[in-house]
């Protein structure tokens, strides 16, 4: 029973458990806390674990050098760990010590600010850098943030900000992994992102957007639509709100729920017309007019309405002409989506004209969201009415070459 243990043994165990450290992890932390003069004298890791168990069981009190190592590992004083419990502070010195403890941290606000800025920069690079390369940088930064969190010596507000940054980075990685056809891993990252956002007290909207996208690629369309709707309901007034409504529309359209798709597109339009906090238009959470038009195009194709799909494509072109940022992936998807619309109308020359400019797109940019439109186009070209068409044969050869290069680039990126 803990009532029979010495107070110092109870404190040693409580401090370790509060940090979620196992006894093996505690042994590792003690070794890390040792300087060059002490470390060579320490026993094996297994012997140290036995010592830790003995200390926490109250069998013997830590002596030198373990008292010092515990103090360093926990970032506390000897009195706090091994002294007798003290009453509430009544002297000025006690209050000063308490304030000093509150201010103890293993990371400065400047470092956290740099992490947040780097996470934002990586988000901005999402549209113009190959996904495999962005993923490498996102994972590296996420590990840096996680290492700071694992130190466990931040102020509360710093911990929350680090958790918010973690949520953003994990959600970004979730999207990139989906672009690279690694959906199972993507969902793991998305789940972790949701947990971090909840712990940070931050909006889960971006995380829900990432999960909705991944669930769509996994074929879990109802889950995708519901996740996007949840995100829409809790999203702040930013372009992300437009994106979430558009994602719900797309998933609903794929499910064949035309009414829900139309309603979600209507909400996307309303959100876009509201006074939104502006962003660059090129982050994973942006939904400028061309990207919004892309979702409308996709829903139109699902409803077998090629004229409406081509109207959406023209809206995207008009937005680019008026100065909206031209994101390569969105541009390619608009082109391929319009090609699908022309194929639905039986106009293969129109389809060929749409895809021609995109055929030279660098393979590392040919992510799954882009190639999926070509998979659909290839299926349409297999229709009986196109049998014997030289244009159809040429288009299908171009599609195979394009998607084959895309898969090779993904494989090379994963091996890097």
Topology:
Layout: H1 7-18, H2 23-33, H3 45-56, H4 66-74, H5 78-82, H6 92-103, H7 109-125, H8 131-151, H9 156-179, H10 183-200, H11 205-217, H12 221-234, H13 239-255, H14 258-273, H15 289-302, H16 306-321, H17 328-344, H18 348-355, H19 368-381, H20 390-415
Helix pairs in contact: 2-3, 2-4, 7-8, 7-9, 8-9, 9-10, 9-11, 10-11, 11-12, 11-13, 12-13, 13-14, 13-15, 14-15, 15-16, 15-17, 16-17, 17-18, 17-19, 19-20
InterPro entries: Cro/C1-type_HTH
Protein name: Helix-turn-helix transcriptional regulator
How would you describe this structure to a colleague?
- This protein folds into four domains: 102 residues, 434 Repressor (Amino-terminal Domain); 98 residues; 108 residues, no CATH class; 89 residues.
- The chain has 20 helices and no strands.
- Helix 7 packs antiparallel against helix 8, helix 10 runs antiparallel to helix 11 and helix 17 packs parallel to helix 19.
- The two termini are 54 Å apart.
- With 416 residues, the protein is mainly α.
- It comes from Microbispora hainanensis.
- This is Helix-turn-helix transcriptional regulator.
- InterPro entries: Cro/C1-type_HTH (IPR001387).
Oligomeric description of these chains: single chain
**Tally of separate helices:** 20
* Secondary structure: number of strands: 0
Largest sheet: none
Overall radius of gyration: 28 Å
Estimate percent helicity.
over 70%
> Whole-Å distance between the termini?
54 Å
Low-confidence stretches: 85-90, 412-416
Percentage of β-strand residues? under 5%
């Amino acid at each position: 029973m803990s009532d029979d243990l010495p107070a110092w043994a109870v404190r040693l165990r409580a401090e370790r458990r509060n940090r979620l450290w196992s006894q093996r992890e505690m042994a590792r932390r003690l070794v890390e806390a040792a300087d060059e003069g002490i470390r060579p004298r320490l026993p094996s890791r297994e012997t140290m674990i036995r010592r830790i168990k003995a200390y926490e069981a109250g069998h013997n009190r830590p002596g030198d050098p373990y008292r010092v190592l515990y103090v360093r590992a926990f970032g506390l004083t000897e009195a706090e760990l091994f002294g007798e419990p003290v009453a509430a502070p009544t002297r000025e010195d006690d209050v000063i010590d308490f304030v000093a403890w509150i201010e103890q941290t293993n990371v400065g606000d400047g470092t956290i600010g740099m992490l947040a800025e780097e996470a934002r920069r990586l988000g901005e690079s999402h549209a113009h850098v190959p996904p495999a390369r962005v993923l490498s940088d996102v994972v590296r930064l996420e590990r840096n943030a996680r290492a700071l969190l694992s130190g466990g010596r931040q102020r509360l507000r710093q911990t929350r900000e680090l958790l918010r940054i973690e949520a953003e980075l994990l959600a970004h990685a979730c999207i990139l992994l989906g672009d690279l056809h690694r959906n199972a891993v993507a969902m793991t990252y998305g789940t972790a992102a949701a947990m971090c956002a909840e712990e940070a007290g931050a909006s889960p909207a971006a995380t829900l957007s990432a999960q909705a996208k991944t669930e769509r690629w996994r074929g879990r369309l109802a889950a995708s639509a519901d996740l996007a709707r949840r995100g829409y309901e809790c999203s702040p007034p930013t372009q992300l709100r437009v994106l979430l409504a558009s994602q719900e529309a797309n998933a609903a359209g794929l499910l064949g729920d035309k009414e829900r798709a139309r309603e979600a597109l209507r909400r996307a339009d309303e959100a876009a017309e509201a006074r939104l906090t502006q962003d660059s238009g090129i982050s994973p959470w942006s939904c400028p007019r061309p990207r919004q038009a892309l979702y409308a195009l996709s829903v139109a194709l699902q409803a077998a309405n090629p004229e409406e799909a081509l109207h959406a494509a023209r809206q995207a072109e008009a937005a680019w002409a008026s100065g909206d940022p031209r994101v390569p992936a969105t541009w390619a998807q608009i082109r391929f989506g319009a090609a699908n619309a022309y194929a639905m109308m039986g106009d293969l020359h129109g389809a060929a004209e749409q895809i021609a400019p995109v055929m030279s797109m660098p393979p590392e940019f040919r992510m799954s969201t882009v190639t999926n439109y070509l998979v659909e186009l290839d299926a349409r070209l297999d229709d009986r009415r196109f049998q014997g068409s030289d244009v159809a044969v040429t288009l299908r050869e171009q599609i195979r070459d394009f998607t084959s290069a895309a898969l090779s680039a993904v494989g090379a990126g994963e091996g890097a």
